[in-house]
Amino acid sequence: MSGADILDALGAARADIRGVLEPDRMLADIAWFRVGGPADLLFQPADEEDLATFLAALPQDFPVMPIGLGSNLLVRDGGVPGVVVRLSARGFGKTVAEEGHRLRTGTAVPDVRLAKAAADAGLAGLAFYRGIPGGIGGALRMNAGAYGGETKDRLIEARAVDRKGQVHILRNEDFGYAYRHSEAPADLIFTEAVFQGEPGDPAEIREAMAKITESREATQPVKSRTGGSTFKNPPGGKAWQLVDQAGCRGLTIGGAQVSELHCNFLLNTGNATASDLERLGETVRARVLATSRVRLDWEIKRIGTWPAGVVIPEFTEAAA
């Protein structure tokens, strides 16, 4: 399959699509790690209606992968087959305060901007988003949280488009939220969400956000090429402590390194490949199990394929 094949498969409907269609688009330009191969086709819809038109026209056997701002994402070196959908700020980047102390937002809005919009509107309860790297779409999918708050605590409902181009509205309870996980159908692409806030003083909310910013900058490599927290915290523990106890602080493979500042962050030191980063992550998982008998699960989402001849053995307890 190629980008040209996908464009041809859209047929006459292609003339009705208003968004940007880019065949063979390198995803390393988008992902925060700055690694990864191309998408056969990158589609950036103009708005929800445009997204629905595209998905309805696309043959059902063509794979579709939505991505957000490129954080919490490791794109493999062989690229991503099929279509990658990325929502743009122009079509999905508005936030509007509504009655009942609610905030309606597009899913391309960065988490930090949602926190700022809530502060500007005097809405407390959403400041924790200041500490989450990424966008609202990803936050919905993985129940993103930080500093004592989680998406499940504040979400009222969300709009989404399915693989056939049909629009759905999901209530909070429809997500089946758990720690860094949701049960929402995998084919849904979220377009908008409504969050519940509480009356608050804007100055106090901004002060709380400033403390979160100060804490992140002091303890996390926020100015490095990274994807955010690499592994989920296991029940009753902290991933970074287990990584540190396994002697992995500063560990390197190729151009990839475990952060010296925060052991639950992997870094591209400048010339890493996606294979370097994933090999490093699997090495860390194996060492943690060997030293602490705890299995770490990836929090970063790994997508795509490896080039011919490249094999990254996934760590398993049986192989440890």
TrEMBL record:
Q: Source taxonomy lineage? A: Bacteria, Pseudomonadati, Pseudomonadota, Alphaproteobacteria, Hyphomicrobiales
Name listed for the protein in its UniProt record: UDP-N-acetylenolpyruvoylglucosamine reductase
GO biological process terms on file: cell division; cell wall organization; peptidoglycan biosynthetic process; regulation of cell shape
What the entry lists under Gene3D superfamilies is as follows: 3.30.465.10, UDP-N-acetylenolpyruvoylglucosamine reductase, C-terminal domain, Uridine Diphospho-n-acetylenolpyruvylglucosamine Reductase, domain 2
Q: Which InterPro entries match?
A: FAD-bd_PCMH, FAD-bd_PCMH-like_sf, FAD-bd_PCMH_sub1, FAD-bd_PCMH_sub2, MurB, MurB_C, MurB_C_sf, Oxid_FAD_bind_N
Q: Which organism is it from?
A: Amorphus orientalis
Main subcellular location of this protein, as a coarse class = cytoplasm
User: Which positions are tagged coiled coil?
Assistant: none
Matching NCBIfam families: murB, PRK13905.1
List the Gene Ontology MF annotations in alphabetical order.
FAD binding; UDP-N-acetylmuramate dehydrogenase activity
Q: Which GO terms describe its cellular component?
A: cytosol
One Pfam family hit: MurB_C
UniProt EC number? 1.3.1.98
